[in-house]
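re: ur question from yesterday

yeah so i grabbed the chain u mentioned. its 136 aa long if i counted rite. heres the sequnce exactly as i have it in my notes:
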Amino acid sequence: MINSPKISIIIPVYNVERYISECLESCIKQTLKDIEFIIVDDCGSDKSMDIAQEYAKKDSRIKIIKNNQNKGLFLARCEGLKSATGKYIISLDSDDFLDLKACEIAYNATKDGYYDIVKFNAYNYDGNTAGIWGGG
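ran it thru and got these structure tokens back, copy pasting raw so excuse formatting
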């Protein structure tokens, strides 16, 4: 039996050329390394997937799935779930990024079996300032 990764990060991608590199960099540089990244190409019209393909060439943990047509965020995530092999799932929007210890902290919170779901706080960052969003 092949060992599955601890975490699968599902990233639907649609016209996020401006943000996709920062998103993928934050995933690849996680302190927890036993992760797979599932990028779901939701048929955008910009160069987002060209950028994602370049990352996939450099990191074998990246899997790319292509939808046959634009399905929208929810259904793109569902397509990613079908290919996920990780024990836990993180859903990440392609215009967002993770703190570099996010996966390690989340996994450590769940590994004793006490927690099934871990919720992150989010920060809205406009390039100059950050403020908490969706806390609680």
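noticed a couple things. The longest helix spans residues 72-83. also The first strand starts at residue 7 and ends at 13.
anyway ttyl
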